[in-house]
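Loading example: each entry is read as four labelled lines plus one structure line.
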Amino acid sequence: MRLSPTDWRNLTLSALALAFVACLPWLVGNYGLSIGVTIVMYTVLATSWALFSGPTHYISLATAAFFGVGTYVTGIGIEYLPYWTLLPLAGVIGAVLAALVGLATLRLSGVYFVIFTLGLAEFIRQVITWGQNVSGAKGIYVLTSITEAHIYWQLLGLAALVYLLGWAIGRSRLGFALRIIGDDEQVARHSGIHTARAKILLFLVPGSVAAITGAILAPRYVYIEPSLAFTPMLSFQVVIMALLGGTGRLWGPLVGVIPFTFLWEGISITVPNQTTLLLGVSFLVIVYLLPKGFVGLFGAIRRRMGSEGLV
Amino acid sequence: MDIIVTGLLLGGTYALIAMGLNLQYGMARIMNLANGEMLVAGGFAAFWFWTAAQVSPLLTVFIVAPVAFAANWLIYIVFLRPLVKRARSRGQLEVDSILTTFGLSFVSVGLMLAVFGGDYFSYSYLSFPVHILGDSYGANRVAAFVSAVIICGALWLWLDRSRAGLTIRAIAVAPDSARLVGIDVGKMAALAFALGGAVTATGGALISTFLTLDASTGVMFTLKALIIVIMGGVGDIRGTIIAALALGLLETFVATLIDPGLTLAAAYLLFVVILLVRPQGLFGRRTT
Amino acid sequence: MKRRTFAQIAALALATGFAAVPASAQDTLKVGAVAPKTGPLAGGAAVSYWPNVKLWVETVNARGGLNVDGKQMMLEVIEYDDQTNPGETIKAVQRLVEQDQADIILPPYSTGLNLASAPIYHRYGIPMITSTATTDKADELSAQFPNVFISLGGAQPIALGAVEVLTELRDRGDIGNKVAIVNVADAFGIELANVAKPAFADAGFELVYESSYPLGSQDLSPVMKAVKSADPDAFVAFSYPPDTFALTEQAQIEDLQVGAFYTAVATAFPSYAGRFGESIEGVLGIGGVNADDEAFQTYAARHEEVTGAKPDYWASAMVYSTFEVLEQSIEAVGLDNAAIIEHIKANAFDTVIGTLDFDENNNNPSFWTVGQWQDGVFKGVASTGREGAVDVVVKGPWK
Amino acid sequence: MSAVLSLRGVTKRFGGLVAVNAMDFDVAEHEVLGLIGPNGSGKSTTLNLISGALPVTSGAIALRGSPITQLPAQDIARRGIARTFQLVRLLPSMSVLENVMAGAVFGHRRRWGYEAEAVAQTMLEQVGLAGRGHMAVGQLTYIDTKRVELARVLAGEPRVVLLDEWLAGLNPTELEEGVALIRALRDEGRTIILVEHVMDAIRSLCDRCVVMASGTKIAEGTPAEVLADPEVIRAYLGDDDA
């Protein structure tokens, strides 16, 4: 793989941008930082989600399941293992879980996949609580000295990894295969693409990234219990943000996450009693008015400007 | 014996939960993820009529059903018909309807929170024991089971015998061909969707006599209903009934003989096994 | 919007009933409250938490406001919904401090959300008198977060309270030796069951049935049938709100005849009595209050008058009492958080649940553990040193 | 003459309906085989069985002697059988060049990067679309979409090419171009199975024909032989006229 001058320029710009946002903890107060954590967390989750769901059109609602597993890896593991080993461990466990789910459902139609992933978080939660019940383990405390800024930097690092990975996949045979699958699965198969394998491989990305995210955030929660770790809202919010941005481009989810986070802040502040209602309404607005997200909107504007330029 | 009767009663409950969704997904081709909220709304209505005026939930259903029918008709016309028109393929419609009904489910939870508050609501109705084959069971569960039998039976007869039922089944099997033989597919789909909503709300009113609900519990029921519909085969009434009964029996068996902590896990396992062995569901037609 | 509504109510109350000066901008204190209005814990918060926030602010404003360093300050509430999501709780608390510049911040709701936000309260030095968190790690927590006070007690004493009450009934000869225990397979239920099971065995009880069921089980009749066939003398369920209702109903259907019937969370809810009426006479449950105490009765009456609903007989009064602790401390030392924390550590407070006094671990050592429905009121029968416990009675047949 | 592809007793049932009944035939290296027959006789289904689009009910298919009967479509494609579709299937979000590259990257011979691009360019030249690689597929005329699909198939350098009514729907001028294109492939020595209705094309292109009716092979031989066969005529025109 050779890099063109444009690639080098983009990489340099990205690195500069990353360095700049890494300074956030010194630039804003705690509240600003907590919004920063929220934005980076959803950027990581939504971007990795879109890496899979964008080309395959499978709507995965399993984010909460992987995330919850990740928080438990930290919660349980922190007593036995050094903290830095936990993140890769969470990634591996998330990937294994994703592979199992993928093997079971990705050969089937998209609907089964949606339902399966919708129930997955609930299922894992049941199994974990049952395990706690049998083993007599209590709710888990994660009392560490890790601060919000540490969490922020770890998430930023993960975000950089996700972008690099997405960029690399986009330039690889796998990425090309996925674009073909997204366009026409039958053509893909008859062109010699192992479609199920490609999809399962790709599904490992959101699985392990969400698990690592959960592992990073666990110290922030202090006390981990299944109903908080596996909250289904997380899966839904990731889907909305990714779709709002648009899944066609690597940077699509980011342009969904940032406005959505601020919109959400605004809603929480002004109408704290109706957050669910407004979340639903924003969902509807996206489906009806922005079916291709901001990416699609930009594309349409650019096309229009381009055609005007020609005339 | 005891296990079987308990399991069948639970299965009847599940049939009530899933039947409406089967009509909506199987016939109207809308994967309605706001289905559970319709169920909770039905339960709310029953609760409200009971506490305000001591109206029996068995009578409330005659108010709930037509209101839910009208509400779902409107939902279909306003929100879903534009999607059906816009969709270029079945897959696209599926994705769009999933997202839309997600949104609708949040909106309904929000509305119910605003109207009723976040509190649990429960009341006692027919909570005395009935003796069947030497064991005692809650009268409200038996009543719900009997209602489930009546509703499922009536639906089956209607779909199997009446002209409207025939046309609905026709669009479920082959929407494009149905259009060619002069069936107004849009209208029939709206009818099936509205009917499904009415059945779900009725189920909600009935099960609220023995389950404690609150505004945010809907998604639990949606999930159960989806699993049952997929297991039974999309668009097949018999399949849904059998899958519901099988699930009820399985959960009761596991709860009684193995460990009540594993009931939901077992239900999920059954779902996965059926998906792997027969992806089209127990009674579904294999699509080629 | 919400804030303005409260301010309007306060202003209206002043203008009509109490001839005090109308609130002006500099005379108000901003009170921040973060708790679930949606999500899995919204149901509990709607019963025990939010009504008390409303009641407390109205009560304080109705008597002319809070006396801060000799100046009467009216209260104005800023409410945030954390959607039962710890991340949102953290963010909302930070928002209250940094954006809204709230003067007083109330503790959040539930064990998990309280603990998740404890580091944030700690960093800002805000006193956090939790009223809905149960933990057995109070000493560790207070070592790491000295600003945190625990008032609701831990799982251990609560479970042991149940054992103690049953032991008393047995030793009086009211019930036999066989006990059946079930629990919901979720954090709190598991913790309670794990403490209670060995304790029952140590007390000489025979465990004739034990089992757990998942949160959200739709049918508990297999559980109750199994309990019934084990023929226990006492039934103990460490349950959550939906299953507390379901288990009670199933017990009535199965006609489970036991001398002691115990269910956990929600037994003390008014809606429990609302649903089952007189049939729950003698039912034991988690929590309890000194129901005959005048302070509580006044509180209950005010609660119903202001919020339109009755308080529950466990957490409601506890939540309110922690607000009172904060109120009295502020009036004593002003708005200096460090001084407030010291004041809370050093003093005992007279509240609606009686005297509240935190020990050296910032823990409230005396709290109600078991209550019982007697004559339509859920009265405390066991506690770790509270006054006003009534004698436990043996439960008769279901009515 | 060794058989590149051979079918033995290949049968496909849809429930009670036998769509393809015990088909036996061989395709030799460098041969153009026409698979013909009236509508609904099972030609396209046979093609779908060979390419793995449908599972075979019974019988055996072998490519150069090794069985491919139960393989999934992608493995069959990888082993060197590539196909076009009855209704042209292009990848709508991709450029013409990328469409062709799909074949070059994942087909029988697998390439990547500049090499794949170069192969795709060559194939575009071969089908007469040189210099149009940057276009969106939506901008193409009907025959050009067919050319792109053909180029995608050829880019993987398959051993056997299956063309499913590739000439259908073309106007007379386009038809001439299309026939010339396939003839050029034939002259290159490609092995091709052609499902076709256009009789003139069959006569001029095919070395040999297999005729199907109601799922069964009723004749086999050179185009001239089979088209003179009374049974074939009866199958095309119906029993009444015979």
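The interface with chain C takes residues 29-32, 34-35, 37-38, 41, 126, 129-130, 132-133, 136-139, 141, 143, 217, 220-228, 231, 233-234, 265, 268-273, 275-276 of chain A (CB under 8 Å).
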